[in-house]
Amino acid sequence: MQLPYWRLSSFYFFYFALLGALVPYWGLFLQNRGFDAIAIGELMAILMATKIVAPYIWGWLGDHLGHRMRIVQVASLISLLVFALMFEANTYWSIALVMTLYSFFWNASLPQFEVVTFTYLKERIAKYAQIRLWGSVGFIITVLLLGMWVDHQGTEVILPAVMVIFISIWLSSLLVKDPDPEPHPHQEISLSQVLKKPAIIAFFVAVFLMQMSHGPYYAFYSIYMEQHGYSKTFIGQMWGLGVFAEVLMFIVMHRLLERYGARRVLVASLLLAAMRWIMIGAWPDSLTNIVLAQCLHAATFGTFHASAIHLVHHYFRGRLQGRGQALYSSVSFGAGGAMGSLASGYAWESLGPFHTFAIATVFAVIGAWVAWQFIDSAHDH
């Protein structure tokens, strides 16, 4: 089966371009609309919370119906149509409703697309990072250009920018055909049997804690940097730098996994995340420190995600693949991200930025310990 490299890559490019608009700038957009830290934390948590349910529902459909690209295309079109309502939404509840609906459909598409990519790759799993890195490129380009645009025009330009990206996601999804389905053996282990294994429980606890520790970063990093006198253009450059470091990591990722194994790479990612949150929380006025902390995004997202995807692909075989990818997305970016955003909103308001990032550090350290103790060392080849 021929690998449609550029078609797969273009979907990742636009999908993560959307994250490049929403993650750094949506909090600023909401702040400019007059919302406080608690409301921003709650609204940002919606983007994560729909990841708890949506990927699993769509993963179940994908595993049972096949035609995963049809699901991706429909979900992309509906999320685009729903987002158009954001131009009319101006109260807390109307914004919350539109965010819930568009993110429910938008979050459905990525885990299904990951399965499509792996089906095309077959035994060439090492090539995954080379396709996925185009998502990071999309994020970088968006975060840099939108940062400059917001600096010149104000935060309201975020709405049309996001709308254009949603249209691009849908159009790029139409270019990818469903791959030929893989034959599945009849005697397959059930999902509940897989989920009872201690190593898999530990894996889900570790990825949940990792994304929970990201809560203050995703919800408040841009606001925090602006409070310390940095321009929106510079803030965009810092988000871009983090993802650029991640791109470089994706290029060498297959070598790291072959040399150290997925478990060790996952543990190292969690420990470096702990270091990163302390650096951001304690020394926001040191330019050198802020730059170094952003370079650690190579670990907290790059090596973390690649090692986690590697483990998911190993743990969930055959018909369970769609639900395995969906569960990873639900538990980590969904439940972990939502809890992190929500908790950081309350901590930010009552304890302040330093203590909020300190708590995030503790979560990352606990995650590293869980992964080291309980994920089987068979992945340390």
Please provide a written account of the structure.
With 381 residues, this protein is mainly alpha-helical. The protein has one domain (5-179, 189-379): MFS general substrate transporter like domains (Growth Hormone, Chain: A, Up-down Bundle). 81% of the residues lie in helices and 0% in strands. It contains 15 helices and no strands. The chain has helices at residues 5-32, 37-65, 68-83, 92-121, 128-153, 158-173, 191-195, 198-213, 215-227, 232-260, 262-282, 287-295, 297-315, 321-350, 353-374. Helix 1 (5-32) packs across helix 9 (215-227). The protein is globular, with a radius of gyration of 20 Å. The two termini are 29 Å apart.
Concise summary:
The protein has 381 residues and is mostly helical.
Uncertain runs with pLDDT below 50, 5 residues or more? none
The biggest sheet amounts to: none
CATH architecture: Up-down Bundle
**Oligomer status:** single chain
Q: Look at the structure and name the CATH superfamily.
A: MFS general substrate transporter like domains
Instruction: Give a count of the beta strands, DSSP E runs of length 2 or more.
Output: 0
Alpha carbon gyration radius = 20 Å
Shape: globular
